Amino acid sequence: MDYKKYVDDKSPKPTYLKNCIWAFIVGGLICDVGQFILNSYIKYGLDKKMASTATSITLIFLGAFFTGIGVYDLLGKRAGAGSIVPITGFSNSIVSPAMEYKREGYVLGVGAKMFTIAGPVLVYGIGSSVILGLIYHFLGIS
């Protein structure tokens, strides 16, 4: 019991309000960048559906690029969930393990470890969408 009290006294206390504000600001800025990209694609001639797809692709690329040069990790340390929740966090969760294990080779390193974080999300997301799609199909809902 004394050790737990000692650890509690020495452990840094989290600043919840500051963390929430940073997450809100950074997440909002990422969404603002996404909206700017979407508006730019629409301005230069893409329809809304194609512009949305191009925006998602661009944000995934930017998340992977900034992870590759080490900027996204610095942002994630400061912003927490504000950098993880948007689609850029998804690309970060794929690129980070791939970069970490590249020394083990492209097959056993990058290929095997790339989806260690995002893999379960993809599996359950795709699996649940297939099940829901089958339910809709057999019930005749469109």
TrEMBL record:
It comes from the Bacteria. The chain crosses the membrane at residues 21-42, 54-75, 121-139. Keywords: Membrane, Transmembrane, Transmembrane helix. Pfam families: SpoVAC_SpoVAEB. PANTHER family: STAGE V SPORULATION PROTEIN AC, STAGE V SPORULATION PROTEIN AC-RELATED. This is Stage V sporulation protein AC. It comes from Tepidibacter hydrothermalis.
